[in-house]
Design goal:
By secondary structure, the protein is α/β, with parallel strands linked by helices. Helices cover 31% and strands 25% of the residues. It is globular. It binds zinc ion. Zinc ion binds next to loops.
């Protein structure tokens, strides 16, 4: 089944023509409404009128995550706040996170793209969907939610956490579909088995997973643990949230990028040069239909490869392979994207903490666990009464990491100079 037959199977020529037309429209709009674009296009000596075809896209400068941060919180919005109906945001302290605005129509477009994704996974109104993506500032939970309702399926708005309750409801409500990060799915399977539940005897038949980097080995593990078909959904908060690309039931052959709403390019992350379709590189996205927060040539940092061969499902939209690595130092911990620079900003604001730290990430069971080693001043190790102060610093670090980044690390305070000279700030021991 295809949700939007007309657009999802548009012949490629017509699709390209539609993209070109929409690109011109979005450029005119951002040029006249967003100061950033007027400045960056002027600096590149181009005007929106110079962009006549998709081939002209390469003349437009990239926009990066740093540009988003520089315009925190609403500097890149293309509509007045009175037209915004929802805000989502990435984690991070003030000025180090990004804010994403949506108009009413943006929410409708997003809902439609999620509906497309769900139908691509074989969902119908007869399905009951256990949605364990996080509800809140990250766009995962709510994004999926409205699409599930749109196709008439029943949604259980579980969010993440409360694992025992989740397992109880998986038994009692008999959902047929599970949506979550892949690591949380594995965690549910392990906890359920430990509770004596036969996870294969649940009603689940398909799972839609995203938000973490995950490999086909993890996919096999999830499919075996639940006895389901596991499909990959892809999204970027900067572009909208989940539903930018989705695997069809042909499965394991990449995710269709909804090209009537987005343009994708692959570039060499070092030089910024456009690579031929099919070569591995950093994906760059342009949103064509967003009203509130359109981004033109956004460097995602995700490394992948585009698949140009036609898909057996009949959809004409290009596919991308799963993302297995990044071009930058972004870490995804329990589905949350964080940067070492955000950790630094948190530590810097705490008195008594020295600049050196080390972040160690590993798996405990199926879930990510973080250990944070932080240097503190000499005096805490010499003065009497330092123990109490050390405990306070430790508590503050744990609390700020939780409050700003939604990460709960195990903190270990160490003496000055302990970490100096250690070349690696981040040690990621996880295999995906
Ligand atoms: Zn397909």
């Amino acid at each position: 089944m295809i949700y939007n037959e007309e657009f999802e199977t548009l012949p490629r020529e017509a699709l390209k023509a539609l993209q070109a037309k929409r690109l011109q429209q979005v450029l005119q709009r951002v040029y006249h409404t967003v100061g950033y674009y007027k400045k960056s296009l002027t600096a590149a000596k181009i005007s929106p009128d110079d962009i006549r075809s998709l081939d002209d896209l390469k003349k437009i400068p990239f926009i990066t995550r740093q540009d988003l941060r520089n315009n925190y919180p609403f500097g890149l919005f293309a509509v007045p706040m009175s037209n915004i109906v929802r805000l989502h945001a990435s984690s991070g302290t003030s000025g180090r996170s990004s804010v994403f605005g949506y108009t009413k129509r943006d929410i409708e477009t997003w809902t439609d793209l999620i509906a497309r994704s769900l139908v691509a996974a074989g969902l119908t109104k007869n399905d009951i969907v256990h949605n364990a993506f996080s509800y809140g500032l990250p766009p995962g939970g709510l994004g999926l939610h409205y699409g599930i309702e749109k196709i008439g399926a029943s949604v259980i708005p579980m969010s993440d956490g409360n694992t025992k309750r989740q397992i109880t409801l998986l038994q009692d409500f008999g959902p047929t579909v599970l949506c979550s990060t892949p690591s949380y799915a594995l965690h549910l399977a392990q906890e359920g088995t430990a509770m004596g539940v036969d996870m294969k005897s649940l009603q689940l038949r398909v799972g839609i997973f995203g938000g973490d980097l995950w490999s086909d080995t993890t996919r096999d593990a999830i499919e075996n643990a639940f006895g389901i078909k596991a499909l990959n959904i892809f999204g970027l908060s900067e572009m909208m949230g989940p539903g930018l690309a989705m695997e069809c039931l042909e499965g394991r052959h990449g995710m269709h990028i909804f090209e009537d709403h987005f343009i994708v390019e692959t570039i060499n992350p070092e030089t910024g040069k456009i690579l031929p379709e099919g070569e591995e590189g950093e994906l760059v996205f342009t949103s064509l239909t967003k009203e509130a927060f359109p981004l033109v040539r956004y460097r995602s940092g995700d490394i992948s490869r585009l698949i140009t061969e036609p898909c057996r499902c009949g959809r004409t939209h290009i596919r991308m392979e799963r993302v297995l690595k990044r071009s930058d130092d972004m870490l995804t911990i329990r589905g949350i994207n964080i940067f070492p620079v955000q950790v630094e900003a948190i530590l810097k604001a705490i008195e008594g903490v020295e600049p050196d730290y080390q972040l160690i990430i590993d798996k405990v069971g199926a879930l990510d666990a973080v250990e944070l080693h932080v240097e503190v001043g000499e005096k805490f190790f010499s003065e009497s009464g330092g123990v109490k102060e050390l405990q306070n610093i430790e508590k503050r670090i744990v609390k700020d990491m939780k409050d700003y980044l939604s990460i709960s690390p195990r903190v270990k305070l160490v003496a000055p100079q302990t970490l100096r000279g250690k070349s690696k700030r981040v040690i990621d021991k996880r295999s995906i």
